[in-house]
Amino acid sequence: MVTYVALLRAVNVAGTGKLPMSDLKAMCTDAGFLQVRTYIASGNVVFQSKASPTKVKADLEARLLAYVGKPVEVIVRTAAQMAAVLKANPFPKAAPNRTVAIFLDEPPPPDALEHAVGVKDEAMRLGTREIFVHYASGIGKSKLKIPIARRGSARNMSTIAKLADVAKNLR
Predict the structure, then answer these.
(1) Would you say residue 119 has pLDDT above 90?
(2) Do 113 and 126 belong together in one domain?
(3) Phi, psi of 92 (to 5 degrees)
(4) Which of 26, 61, 80 finishes a domain?
(5) Do 98 and 60 share a structural domain?
(6) Residue 77, SS3 per DSSP
(7) Chain-wide mean pLDDT for the chain?
(8) Which of 5, 7, 10 is nearest to 150 (CA)?
(9) Tens of pLDDT along 56-93?
């Protein structure tokens, strides 16, 4: 049995993709996932499954499409991978609520940050399948756009730490 963390893109954020977490939990249970836990209303779910990450992603995306009537991208990480993202944070002294990892399905291209626009005082680093960004002045004031990030889903370090902890302790 593998413990997974699934991150839904653009759910319950800025009025898009309304999805009650109780419905997300029910979808996961109906898919055969075990020990399902959601965390905050922005589309974070932790669970166990014998299925591969690819199958978990496909099952969840199909159920979400049927529920909301449009595609909802899902990024899947194992508990160990989520813990590794937290450990790999290149800005460990920065405020966790101002530092995010943008989760991607594939490794970001080496030149991904060269295409960023609207850079002010943000610091950026590439990860394995993430892009780390520290927003020195806060996310709300930033005009930063990283084109490849449109394919991903961002979570701040506080949320990542909580998800890693939930996944580590799932029984």
Answers:
(1) yes
(2) yes
(3) -65, -20
(4) 80
(5) no
(6) strand
(7) 93
(8) 10
(9) 999 999 999 998 888 889 999 999 999 999 999 999 99
The single-letter code of the amino acid at 165 is: D
Helix (H) or strand (E) holding 155: strand 153-156
Instruction: Calculate mean pLDDT across residues 26-43.
Output: 92
Q: Where are the alpha helices (DSSP H) in the chain?
A: 21-30, 53-68, 79-88, 157-168
User: Please, are residues 102 and 131 in contact by the beta-carbon 8 Å criterion?
Assistant: yes
At 42, is the pLDDT very low, low, confident or very high (cuts 50, 70, 90)? Answer: confident
Residue type, 159: T
Amino acid letter, residue 130: E
Assign residue 71 the CATH number of its domain: 3.30.70.1280
In this predicted structure, what is the pLDDT of residue 146? 96
Q: How far apart are the first and last CA of the chain?
A: 11
Residue type, 155: R
Calpha distance 146→55 (Å, rounded): 28
- Per the DSSP assignment, residues forming a β-bridge with 129 are none
Distance CA 38, CA 28 (A): 10
Section 49-61 average pLDDT: 96
- Signed CA dihedral, 67, 150, 134, 98: sign only: negative
Q: Which domain holds residue 147?
A: 82-167
Same domain for 39 and 19, yes or no, is yes
